[in-house]
Design a protein that fits this description.
The protein is an alpha/beta fold. It contains seven helices and seven strands.
Length: 241
């Protein structure tokens, strides 16, 4: 793709050891985006994969001119990969989704449609395709985040989102922020809606998250976000003379 070419929609996809999923995801994603009838780009961020993901992305980029590959030198985590991709994105509308085929590209047009009235449309995985333990732990984590942050998000950690580019302007970034993206965006006054989306069981590869590697770090991040929300400066000017 010509680096000066204008695009309307940028789809950012973080990748970490998903070599079996990429050959399935990329053609499907390109098909869905092609139906929109507007210029788009697919920005795949390889987060230091140790399998053949980078090689596959290079090969697929030769077949799909709308595909861009951002390769990180080492594995830095989902939040970093998302931020790196969003900063590289050129579209006025940005979509994010996982590369494990659990998010469905067919939901993208629906989410984009809400941007006529909202600044962000974030996915709500009503029927999770995960194992029961992961479903329960995620439900508990979501409830705790809502309780401590004073929110009512049904699925605050869903990666599948569509939002206007302005939402990431001056966005506070840190490891783990992907779980609080909706809260951080709402704190800046943007309008957000949750939209039911599909969620499929993982067919290939292994999940990168489990209870042990997420509970403590997530709770520490939660306390930080709660502090920021309660200490943030808000005011409305009533009159100027």
């Amino acid at each position: 793709m010509n680096p000066t070419e204008t695009v309307d929609i940028s789809v950012v996809i973080p990748v970490y050891n998903e070599e079996e999923n990429l050959p399935v995801l990329i053609p499907k994603l390109a098909e869905v985006l092609g139906r929109l009838g507007t210029p788009y780009e697919m920005v795949f961020v390889d987060d230091g994969s140790s399998d053949g993901s980078r090689k596959i992305l290079r090969e697929m980029a030769l077949k799909h001119t709308s595909l861009r590959v951002i390769g990180l030198r080492e594995n830095r985590g989902l939040s970093t990969a998302l931020i790196a991709g969003m900063r590289e994105a050129r579209g006025e509308k940005i979509v994010t989704l996982d590369s494990d085929l659990q998010n469905d590209p067919e939901d993208i047009p629906k989410l984009l449609g809400y941007l006529d009235c909202y600044d962000m449309a974030t996915g709500w995985r009503q029927k999770r395709g995960d194992p029961w333990l992961k479903r329960i732990s995620s439900k508990i984590a979501n409830a705790v985040r809502n309780r401590l942050c004073g929110e009512e998000f049904k699925d605050s950690a869903c990666t599948l989102r569509a939002f206007k580019r302005e939402c990431i302007k001056d966005l506070l970034v840190f490891n783990g922020m992907h779980r609080f993206f909706s809260t951080l965006t709402k704190m800046k006054g943007y309008r957000i809606i949750e939209v039911p989306v599909f969620h499929h069981p993982r067919k290939y590869g292994k999940s990168k998250y489990n209870i042990r590697n997420r509970v403590l770090r997530s709770f520490i991040d939660l306390l930080g976000v709660r502090w920021m929300k309660h200490r943030s400066i808000r005011y409305n000017i009533e009159e100027r003379i």
